[in-house]
Amino acid sequence: MNIIDFIIGLTLINTIPHFVLGIWKGRMLSAFGFGNIANIVYGILNFIISISLFLYKYGMDGLMANSMYLGALFVLISYFIVGKLCYTNFHKKHYEKTL
Questions:
Q1: Distance, CA of 42 to CA of 63 (rounded, Å)
Q2: Do residues 58 and 2 lie in contact, with contact meaning Cβ atoms separated by under 8 Å?
Q3: How confident is the model at residue 90 (pLDDT cuts 50, 70, 90)?
Q4: Residue span of the structural domain in which 77 resides
Q5: How many domains does the chain have?
């Protein structure tokens, strides 16, 4: 392992809390400020950094050979696709009615 591998993993995992909290209207300090839009943008930036460094170092063949990174990437992309849908269907419809 070297520093690039560490940054690849760090930025991929750091994407998840920032993007998830941004979608769910949570407030968390990020490099772009304190708010949900700032967290979404920061999460996407982390994702771009992670995938770019990974592809630069290992290429597409490395992506298919590294099942741990591919699995984490699959979970992340799945949430990119269904995150807003989950927020709308579960949080808004159920949680906010109980308050």
A1: 23
A2: no
A3: confident
A4: 3-98
A5: 1
